[in-house]
Amino acid sequence: xxxxxxxxxxxxxxxxxxxxxxxxxxxxxxxxxxxxxxxxxxxxxxxxxxxxxxxxxxxxxxxxxxxxxxxxxxxxxxxxxxxxxxxxxxxxxxxxxxxxxxxxxxxxxxxxxxxxxxxxxxxxxxxxxxxxxxxxxxxxxxxxxxxxxxxxxxxxxxxxxxxxxxxxxxxxxxxxx
Length: 177
Ligand SMILES: NC(=O)c1ccc[n+]([C@@H]2O[C@H](COP(=O)([O-])OP(=O)(O)OC[C@H]3O[C@@H](n4cnc5c(N)ncnc54)[C@H](OP(=O)(O)O)[C@@H]3O)[C@@H](O)[C@H]2O)c1
Hints:
This is Diacylglycerol kinase. With about 180 residues, this protein is an alpha/beta fold. Helices cover about 20% and strands about 30% of the residues. The chain has an eight-stranded mixed sheet, sandwiched between helices. NADP nicotinamide-adenine-dinucleotide phosphate binds next to strand 1, strand 2, strand 3, helix 2 and helix 4. NADP nicotinamide-adenine-dinucleotide phosphate (NAP) binds next to strand 1, strand 2, strand 3, helix 2 and helix 4.
Protein backbone atom coordinates (compact mmCIF):
# COMPACT_ATOMS: atom_id res chain seq x y z
CA UNK A 1 0.00 0.00 0.00
CA UNK A 2 1.58 3.31 -1.03
CA UNK A 3 0.57 6.89 -1.74
CA UNK A 4 2.82 8.05 -4.53
CA UNK A 5 3.49 11.48 -6.02
CA UNK A 6 4.55 11.47 -9.68
CA UNK A 7 4.98 15.00 -10.93
CA UNK A 8 6.96 17.37 -13.12
CA UNK A 9 8.38 20.46 -11.42
CA UNK A 10 10.45 23.45 -12.47
CA UNK A 11 13.96 23.93 -11.04
CA UNK A 12 12.48 26.43 -8.60
CA UNK A 13 9.78 24.03 -7.44
CA UNK A 14 6.63 25.05 -9.30
CA UNK A 15 4.17 22.67 -10.99
CA UNK A 16 2.32 25.34 -12.98
CA UNK A 17 3.45 28.83 -13.98
CA UNK A 18 2.08 32.20 -12.85
CA UNK A 19 -0.74 31.86 -15.40
CA UNK A 20 -1.57 28.36 -14.20
CA UNK A 21 -0.10 26.95 -17.43
CA UNK A 22 1.92 23.75 -17.83
CA UNK A 23 3.09 24.07 -21.49
CA UNK A 24 6.70 24.39 -20.27
CA UNK A 25 6.51 20.74 -19.12
CA UNK A 26 6.27 19.62 -22.73
CA UNK A 27 8.67 22.02 -24.40
CA UNK A 28 11.87 19.96 -24.08
CA UNK A 29 12.92 18.37 -27.39
CA UNK A 30 11.52 14.83 -27.45
CA UNK A 31 11.58 13.70 -31.10
CA UNK A 32 10.87 10.04 -30.31
CA UNK A 33 7.95 10.96 -28.03
CA UNK A 34 9.40 9.14 -24.99
CA UNK A 35 6.97 8.97 -22.07
CA UNK A 36 9.82 9.16 -19.51
CA UNK A 37 8.46 6.12 -17.67
CA UNK A 38 4.88 7.30 -17.20
CA UNK A 39 3.23 4.15 -18.62
CA UNK A 40 5.32 1.93 -16.32
CA UNK A 41 4.31 4.09 -13.37
CA UNK A 42 0.62 3.94 -14.31
CA UNK A 43 0.85 0.14 -14.51
CA UNK A 44 1.96 0.18 -10.85
CA UNK A 45 -0.90 2.19 -9.41
CA UNK A 46 -4.50 1.14 -8.73
CA UNK A 47 -6.22 4.54 -8.68
CA UNK A 48 -5.61 8.27 -8.79
CA UNK A 49 -6.55 10.89 -6.20
CA UNK A 50 -6.40 14.40 -7.64
CA UNK A 51 -7.44 17.85 -6.51
CA UNK A 52 -10.34 19.68 -8.12
CA UNK A 53 -8.02 22.23 -9.79
CA UNK A 54 -5.99 19.51 -11.49
CA UNK A 55 -9.22 17.78 -12.55
CA UNK A 56 -10.46 21.01 -14.13
CA UNK A 57 -7.11 21.53 -15.89
CA UNK A 58 -7.33 18.05 -17.43
CA UNK A 59 -10.93 18.64 -18.46
CA UNK A 60 -9.74 21.77 -20.29
CA UNK A 61 -7.36 19.75 -22.50
CA UNK A 62 -8.52 19.20 -26.04
CA UNK A 63 -8.44 15.40 -25.77
CA UNK A 64 -10.35 12.40 -24.51
CA UNK A 65 -10.23 11.57 -20.78
CA UNK A 66 -6.62 10.30 -20.49
CA UNK A 67 -6.81 7.81 -17.60
CA UNK A 68 -7.85 4.16 -17.65
CA UNK A 69 -7.45 3.76 -13.87
CA UNK A 70 -10.24 5.04 -11.58
CA UNK A 71 -9.90 8.70 -10.61
CA UNK A 72 -11.12 10.13 -7.29
CA UNK A 73 -11.39 13.92 -7.30
CA UNK A 74 -11.08 15.73 -3.97
CA UNK A 75 -13.61 18.55 -3.87
CA UNK A 76 -15.82 20.24 -1.33
CA UNK A 77 -17.59 22.28 -4.03
CA UNK A 78 -18.22 20.05 -7.06
CA UNK A 79 -21.52 18.20 -6.98
CA UNK A 80 -21.31 16.15 -10.18
CA UNK A 81 -18.91 15.15 -12.93
CA UNK A 82 -19.81 15.18 -16.63
CA UNK A 83 -21.82 12.11 -17.75
CA UNK A 84 -19.18 11.18 -20.33
CA UNK A 85 -16.66 10.36 -17.58
CA UNK A 86 -19.03 9.37 -14.75
CA UNK A 87 -17.90 5.72 -14.98
CA UNK A 88 -14.24 6.74 -14.57
CA UNK A 89 -14.33 9.66 -12.12
CA UNK A 90 -15.83 9.91 -8.62
CA UNK A 91 -15.96 12.86 -6.24
CA UNK A 92 -14.62 12.40 -2.72
CA UNK A 93 -14.39 14.62 0.36
CA UNK A 94 -13.57 14.27 4.02
CA UNK A 95 -10.53 13.25 6.03
CA UNK A 96 -7.68 12.05 3.81
CA UNK A 97 -6.92 9.11 6.12
CA UNK A 98 -10.55 7.95 5.84
CA UNK A 99 -10.54 8.33 2.05
CA UNK A 100 -7.31 6.34 1.71
CA UNK A 101 -8.67 3.66 4.06
CA UNK A 102 -11.96 3.41 2.14
CA UNK A 103 -10.12 3.10 -1.17
CA UNK A 104 -7.87 0.38 0.28
CA UNK A 105 -10.98 -1.56 1.30
CA UNK A 106 -12.16 -1.34 -2.31
CA UNK A 107 -8.83 -2.85 -3.41
CA UNK A 108 -7.10 0.39 -4.45
CA UNK A 109 -3.81 0.00 -2.59
CA UNK A 110 -1.33 2.03 -4.59
CA UNK A 111 -2.55 5.56 -5.17
CA UNK A 112 -1.21 8.25 -7.49
CA UNK A 113 -1.62 11.55 -5.62
CA UNK A 114 -1.84 14.56 -7.95
CA UNK A 115 -2.27 18.33 -7.66
CA UNK A 116 -0.30 20.91 -5.67
CA UNK A 117 -2.64 21.56 -2.75
CA UNK A 118 -3.57 17.90 -2.67
CA UNK A 119 0.06 16.76 -2.44
CA UNK A 120 0.69 19.40 0.23
CA UNK A 121 -2.31 18.20 2.28
CA UNK A 122 -1.10 14.61 2.09
CA UNK A 123 2.42 15.66 3.11
CA UNK A 124 1.13 17.75 6.01
CA UNK A 125 -0.41 14.55 7.39
CA UNK A 126 2.66 12.45 6.50
CA UNK A 127 0.60 10.34 4.13
CA UNK A 128 3.06 10.27 1.21
CA UNK A 129 5.26 7.17 0.84
CA UNK A 130 7.05 7.96 -2.42
CA UNK A 131 7.97 11.08 -4.36
CA UNK A 132 8.84 10.72 -8.05
CA UNK A 133 9.77 14.17 -9.26
CA UNK A 134 10.87 14.98 -12.79
CA UNK A 135 12.77 18.26 -12.71
CA UNK A 136 12.47 20.45 -15.81
CA UNK A 137 15.39 22.89 -16.23
CA UNK A 138 13.41 26.10 -16.18
CA UNK A 139 13.10 28.79 -13.52
CA UNK A 140 9.48 29.93 -13.56
CA UNK A 141 9.90 32.58 -10.90
CA UNK A 142 6.48 31.92 -9.43
CA UNK A 143 3.31 29.90 -9.92
CA UNK A 144 1.70 26.92 -8.22
CA UNK A 145 4.23 25.50 -5.72
CA UNK A 146 4.84 21.79 -5.30
CA UNK A 147 5.70 22.14 -1.62
CA UNK A 148 4.67 24.37 1.25
CA UNK A 149 5.24 24.55 5.01
CA UNK A 150 5.13 21.43 7.15
CA UNK A 151 4.70 21.04 10.87
CA UNK A 152 7.81 18.87 11.03
CA UNK A 153 10.52 17.76 8.59
CA UNK A 154 9.88 14.58 6.60
CA UNK A 155 12.92 12.50 5.63
CA UNK A 156 13.16 10.55 2.40
CA UNK A 157 15.70 8.09 0.99
CA UNK A 158 16.84 8.52 -2.62
CA UNK A 159 16.35 5.26 -4.53
CA UNK A 160 16.82 6.14 -8.19
CA UNK A 161 17.69 8.90 -10.65
CA UNK A 162 17.25 8.78 -14.42
CA UNK A 163 18.44 11.48 -16.81
CA UNK A 164 16.35 11.84 -19.98
CA UNK A 165 16.79 13.68 -23.26
CA UNK A 166 19.75 15.86 -22.09
CA UNK A 167 17.28 18.00 -20.18
CA UNK A 168 15.39 16.37 -17.35
CA UNK A 169 16.14 14.26 -14.28
CA UNK A 170 13.61 11.99 -12.64
CA UNK A 171 14.38 11.43 -8.96
CA UNK A 172 12.64 8.76 -6.93
CA UNK A 173 12.48 9.13 -3.15
CA UNK A 174 10.95 6.84 -0.54
CA UNK A 175 9.77 8.04 2.86
CA UNK A 176 12.06 6.94 5.67
CA UNK A 177 9.89 6.29 8.73
N1 LIG B 1 3.51 19.77 -13.18
C1 LIG B 1 2.70 18.74 -13.11
O1 LIG B 1 3.11 17.58 -13.38
C2 LIG B 1 1.28 18.97 -12.61
C3 LIG B 1 0.54 17.89 -12.14
C4 LIG B 1 -0.74 18.13 -11.62
C5 LIG B 1 -1.24 19.41 -11.60
N2 LIG B 1 -0.50 20.44 -12.10
C6 LIG B 1 -1.04 21.81 -12.07
O2 LIG B 1 -1.27 22.20 -10.73
C7 LIG B 1 -2.39 23.09 -10.69
C8 LIG B 1 -3.41 22.53 -9.71
O3 LIG B 1 -2.84 22.41 -8.42
P1 LIG B 1 -3.46 23.19 -7.18
O4 LIG B 1 -2.42 23.32 -6.14
O5 LIG B 1 -4.08 24.43 -7.69
O6 LIG B 1 -4.62 22.29 -6.63
P2 LIG B 1 -5.21 20.79 -6.63
O7 LIG B 1 -4.57 19.99 -5.57
O8 LIG B 1 -5.27 20.22 -8.00
O9 LIG B 1 -6.74 21.13 -6.23
C9 LIG B 1 -7.02 21.74 -4.99
C10 LIG B 1 -8.49 21.65 -4.71
O10 LIG B 1 -8.84 20.32 -4.34
C11 LIG B 1 -9.94 20.36 -3.42
N3 LIG B 1 -9.67 19.68 -2.15
C12 LIG B 1 -10.62 19.07 -1.40
N4 LIG B 1 -10.10 18.52 -0.32
C13 LIG B 1 -8.80 18.79 -0.34
C14 LIG B 1 -7.75 18.48 0.54
N5 LIG B 1 -7.92 17.76 1.65
N6 LIG B 1 -6.54 18.95 0.24
C15 LIG B 1 -6.33 19.64 -0.90
N7 LIG B 1 -7.29 19.96 -1.80
C16 LIG B 1 -8.54 19.52 -1.51
C17 LIG B 1 -10.23 21.83 -3.18
O11 LIG B 1 -11.24 22.13 -4.14
P3 LIG B 1 -12.73 22.59 -3.71
O12 LIG B 1 -12.67 24.07 -3.65
O13 LIG B 1 -13.60 22.07 -4.80
O14 LIG B 1 -13.00 21.96 -2.38
C18 LIG B 1 -8.93 22.49 -3.55
O15 LIG B 1 -9.08 23.83 -3.92
C19 LIG B 1 -2.95 23.16 -12.11
O16 LIG B 1 -2.41 24.29 -12.76
C20 LIG B 1 -2.38 21.91 -12.75
O17 LIG B 1 -2.24 22.03 -14.16
C21 LIG B 1 0.75 20.24 -12.59
